[in-house]
Q: What sequence folds into this?
């Protein structure tokens, strides 16, 4: 009799749990949904505000990079914030926010920054304009309104007046050129030409 009573009690417990456990689970799920954060439609992911029609009319490339090696073994890299292909007038591609770095075989590095640049349609040189600054490894910093860099050989020049600050002092000149010395030993020279004026500033 005791065994039968125990079995009856177990059966009743199992039957009760079959009802109570699903109810408990349902109550827990309901609580989770009630306390969860409600979705605010205004918190949708932001989307890019791009004028597609303008992009189609004026195609452009963001953060382009040009890298090459000149015949004399110098490595040239040019990057920009934005570039646009050449127009129907035959002009070359142009870019804004331009930065360039020339590393010659002797290990010297020259950095150049400019507001804008335009590549020659022939692809042989780049014309930089707008507050151009050239920083040479020798410690000279040259400022000009325009400079041109060849892409096939090491040759950076300014055919308009330049101002330079360097170890010897302040230099003003009508033009400037950075090119291979031509003495056969792979050396490179930064040369100032035309009414060159040096204001010597002795080291303290």
A:
């Amino acid at each position: 009799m005791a065994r039968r009573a125990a079995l009856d009690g177990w059966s009743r417990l199992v039957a009760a749990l079959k009802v109570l456990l699903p109810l408990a689970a349902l109550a827990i799920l309901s609580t989770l949904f009630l306390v969860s954060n409600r979705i605010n439609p205004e918190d949708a992911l932001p989307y890019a505000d791009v004028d597609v029609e303008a992009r189609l009319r004026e195609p452009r490339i963001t953060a382009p990079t040009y890298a090459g090696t000149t015949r004399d073994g110098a490595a040239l890299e040019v990057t920009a914030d934005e570039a646009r292909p050449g127009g129907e007038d035959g002009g070359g591609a142009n870019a804004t926010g331009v930065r360039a770095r020339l590393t010659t075989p002797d290990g010297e590095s020259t950095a150049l920054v400019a507001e804008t640049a335009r590549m020659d349609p022939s692809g042989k040189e780049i014309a930089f304009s707008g507050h151009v600054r050239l920083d040479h490894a020798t410690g000279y910093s040259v400022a000009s309104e325009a400079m041109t860099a060849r892409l096939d050989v090491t040759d950076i020049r300014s055919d308009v007046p330049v101002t330079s600050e360097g170890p010897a002092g302040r230099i003003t000149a009508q033009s400037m050129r950075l090119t291979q010395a031509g003495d056969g030993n792979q050396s490179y020279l930064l040369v100032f030409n035309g009414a060159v004026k040096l204001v010597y500033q002795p080291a303290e």
Observations:
- Helices lie at 2-35, 52-57.
- Residues 1-38 form one domain.
